[in-house]
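Dear colleague,

As promised, here are the two records you asked about, laid out in our usual form so they can be pasted straight into your sheet.

NAME FIELD: protein one
SEQUENCE, THEN STRUCTURE:
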Amino acid sequence: MRKNLSALKAAFPYTIPVMAGYLFLGMVFGVMLSSKGYHFGWAVLMSFFIYAGSMQFVAVNLLSSAFNPLSAFLMTLVVNARHLFYGISMLKKYNGTGLKKPYLIMGLTDETYSILCSTEAPKDVDRVSFLFFVTLLNQIYWVTASMAGGLLGSFFTFDTSGIDFVMTALFVVIFINQWKSQKEHLPAVTGVVVSVLCLIIFGPDNFIIPSMVFIALALTIFRRTIERRA
């Protein structure tokens, strides 16, 4: 019990910036889902079981459009494909986490990944418990904010046009933070260059899937070079 409490106290300060962002973003998601006529409980369930912020925003539009399971599958795969690389890079850090590993994998969002990549547990704190509480606290923030947004949207009417731009702004901030925290910038430069080229070639409606494919190929080809330089 004392071990968990000390890990919780150590993890909380690192999650405060995420809390500030999640409280706003989660509420936006809840409001958007509520504006489509869904009960706030669906926002809570999606945030608890899916827990993929960007995909949850996309899912709002998927739920309000014609049912197309293949399109939904491909879109989910593309939007969350970055987690393949997140998972690979966390293999060593998650080694020896025991029964907590499945939840740590499930809860590995962009923000949690950013914290865990740049932070080590204090020397007097259990490492596994620290990883667990960083992940858990972030999800609590998201679920709570989603519920609040769903409740707010059910009582008030909002014009939600353009509000989903918050996810774009969030990813820009994450990109800048990762750029500052990492010495090797080749993966980031590769992602930007490939995305711009695919946008020019395939157009704004069709560039996402080709971008992800070519980024994955480029990072695979240059993996050893990146690891050596890092």
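NAME FIELD: protein two
SEQUENCE, THEN STRUCTURE:
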Amino acid sequence: MPAIFVPDGNRFCATEHAGGPWSPDMLQGSATTGLMTREVEKLANASGFAVRRLTFDLWRPAGVKTFSVESELLRDGRKAKTIQVKLFDDANEIGRCTALLTAQGPESPVDPSPLAASNDKPPEDGVPPPAFAQKWSRYFQNVTTRLIEGALEKPGPAAAWMRLDAPMVDGEANTPLMQAVQAADFASGVGQIVDMREWTFINPEISLYFLRPPQGDWILIRSRTRSGMNGAGLTSATLADRNGPFAEVLQAMSFERREA
């Protein structure tokens, strides 16, 4: 199975399978956020705290190159911790993740059982996207996708199950958190509202808020996008696993009309 990154000491070499939709020589956003999530999860597991929020600022396009990560504990509280992870391409900082971790309490103030109930179709009952849509990027060719509402190639809200089949890092299994974060980057594409032959769009940031840890490797994205003034937009999505919703996603969008 091809990997997205191959470790090289403390660095990570992107493979051709990391290529994104705008250029095969530029990283898919999911690869960028996935690599930073790996570092956050390692630190969270060591602390025993739960990941409650992840905010990714994607500062510049990242080529298919070799990367390194640096982490810093910004706040070391008894009930909450804040971690910052930076991603570097040589001397250039490509982006960063700010992670909020909280202590895990023994009980909840209200019954969370409604979150465990899901009436959505399972991935086995979904349908794959058209072949041309699956070829939008080298990275996406390694993501098994099953639509249960809407269509990737048509504007409008949609819902799709996704599972990254290739390991994010060679020799390592993809964790449920990593599956959730890499899927979340597709929220703007799942719920896109424009004809992509006429418009381009980017999400220079993405935030995820967790109600509980995700489970399993299949992640359901239920996404919609709204347009604002002067090229602004906002994508919101709910992430679910087979047990129901577990996180909310927000993406600030920027639209630009393609040149004729």
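A couple of things worth noting about protein two: The mean pLDDT is 89. The chain has five helices and 13 strands.

Best,
R.
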